[in-house]
Amino acid sequence: MCRIEDHFPYPTMRRGQAEFINAVLRSLKGGINVIEAPSGLGKTSGVLSAISCLSELEGAKFIYAVRTHSQVSRVMEECLKFPKVKMIALRGKGGLCINWKVRRIKNNFLMNMKCEELRKLGSCPYYPPKIREARRCHDPILLKGNYCPYYSSLGIINGYDAVVLCYPYLFEEELYSVLRGFNPDYLIIDEAHNLRRFWFSRIVATLELEKLERVLSSLCERWSDLMRSLQRSRMQSLEIPRNYLIYLLRECLSSSPKSFEHFSKWILSEVEGSKRIILEPPNLILLKEVDGSLEESLKRFKSVLLISGTWSEEVARGEVLEELNYERISLDRWGEVASFIVRDFTTRFEERSRLEFYRVASTLAELSEAVVGNMGIFTSSYEVLQGVLDAGFENMVEKPLFIERKDMDSHELSKMISEFKSMSSIGAILLGVQGGRSSEGEDFPGLQMTASIVLGLQLSKPNTLGRVQEILWRKYTRLEDPTLINACRSAIQAAARPVRAQDDIGFIAFVDRRFSYCLGMMPPWMRRGIKYVRLEDLVPSAQEFFNRRSPMKRVDVAEDMPSSSES
Ligand code: SF4
């Protein structure tokens, strides 16, 4: 039997944390299990306590899957506090390759091919790697030296009790095969409400037409003809017979220079691996056939634990079509929160206008002056974000403004987010998109974000891609209104950014009257006392909220507490 006090390294537990750890231990007795628990409760340290105990007690092996690479880093940092845990981070070549000729290639497929070619020729100076000393908490991204960190870490995985990795490793057989020999007993997945959506990304892939065109138009006239016909026909989308596209690509690429060899292999393998292909600017949509189901991937483990901060029982059972054990760690009070739904505004496409964008932009600018600490604005799409900017938002605000761009790479984005966080003492504004990387998986404790404004409900567009996604949700899940559920989930995730611990404060505004449909999915602490207001009422409400509280004091209190995980 596990004695958690022998494994938990902090002097005290957070509210609800003991309950959470017990639920984790109960869930690792078999089957597929879901635990819903609020963020900031100390879930990472709770999971590591259970790993520490069960690996010591029964020699159990774990896979701990998280959504992003920065979450992998956070788990590895937390590992250092648990003296009995032996854990390794499994990362891809994209983050680990130290050969600049390969590292600069952004596409994973092309990068792998180049790496393989260099290894075969014996031309990568960092390969074969020496098996280096294995650290207890081994994160290859921190290794310095002249040996390939990717291949050197693969050689030592089997000696660890737990592997922390990102979702793709779970479903891609080729990636999962690097774990051959590790033989995990348990799978723990964090932020598991993303799982089904992630699994669908294996069925529907989109390639940016603009990038393809840049290469293909220079190679052959036929591709340009195809694009021109689409434009002339004024059709929104066009299904292209797969065999015709393969024929066309082969012809275009047959006379391409040697430097296009890897690109040719990549694009042909993408198209050949697809069942149907649809041209819908700005994307080429590829529909693929997948072997097996999400549930089959989960059933290869003795026990699976799916953890989430926002996954109601009804929705979880609708998304995972297997018998589930569901537990909820419910805290009625979580942080000091005031929540609002704006009843006289919407970003509904038919009701958008320059005047309405001006109205919302000027209100949010005024609101930013009332906020103490940083404020996040999360729009339903990049179009809505642009609408706010076109209304002159940049010139209306006094505080530093950070804008998430669609084409930002993860390095650029994390640099921008750290800069935004560092400005919490003067107060800054982050303008991002719901479901984007800044609105999920990124924590903003204390003054790093005290107000979250969720602007517009993210219902999918009535285009082919939106319809395909709707069909997939209906085919593979039992959800009654998947589009609305997904939109509400992204909004709630974004709204919860400021409240990551029991002492955080959060002014939360859902700016779209349609958010009343999402009430049932909101956690109790967010839903409790929620008020319906006019857009213009937000400013006096924020003034009243921040005047009544002193976030500075709360941060001091939080800093006096024993540190625990940020999850
Ligand atoms: S062997 Fe390692 S360092 Fe060399 S190209 Fe491949 S991933 Fe990069």
Brief sketch in words of this structure:
Keywords: 4Fe-4S, ATP-binding, DNA damage, DNA repair, DNA-binding, Helicase, Hydrolase, Iron, Iron-sulfur, Isomerase, Metal-binding, Nucleotide-binding. With 567 residues, the chain is of the alpha/beta class. It is globular, with a radius of gyration of 25 Å.
Task: Detail the topology: elements first, then pairings.
Blueprint: H1 17-27, E1 31-36, H2 43-58, E2 62-66, H3 69-79, E3 87-89, H4 93-96, H5 100-103, H6 108-121, E4 137-138, H7 149-154, E5 162-166, H8 168-171, H9 173-176, E6 186-189, H10 195-200, E7 204-208, H11 209-219, H12 221-233, E8 238-240, H13 242-254, H14 261-272, E9 274-280, E10 283-288, H15 294-298, E11 303-308, H16 313-319, E12 324-328, E13 336-342, H17 354-370, E14 375-379, H18 382-390, H19 393-396, E15 401-403, H20 410-422, E16 429-433, E17 451-455, H21 464-476, H22 482-495, E18 505-511, H23 524-527, E19 531-533, H24 538-548, H25 551-560
Parallel strand pairs: 1-11, 1-12, 2-5, 2-6, 3-4, 3-5, 6-11, 13-18, 13-19, 14-16, 14-17, 15-16, 17-18
Antiparallel strand pairs: 7-10, 8-9, 9-10
Helix pairs in contact: 1-2, 11-12, 13-14, 17-18, 17-24
The structure holds iron/sulfur cluster.
The site of iron/sulfur cluster (SF4) has 14 residues, from α6 and α7.
GO biological process, one term: DNA repair
GO molecular function, one term: hydrolase activity, acting on acid anhydrides, in phosphorus-containing anhydrides
InterPro entries: ATP-dep_Helicase_C, DinG/Rad3-like, Helic_SF1/SF2_ATP-bd_DinG/Rad3, Helicase-like_DEXD_c2, P-loop_NTPase, RAD3-like_helicase_DEAD
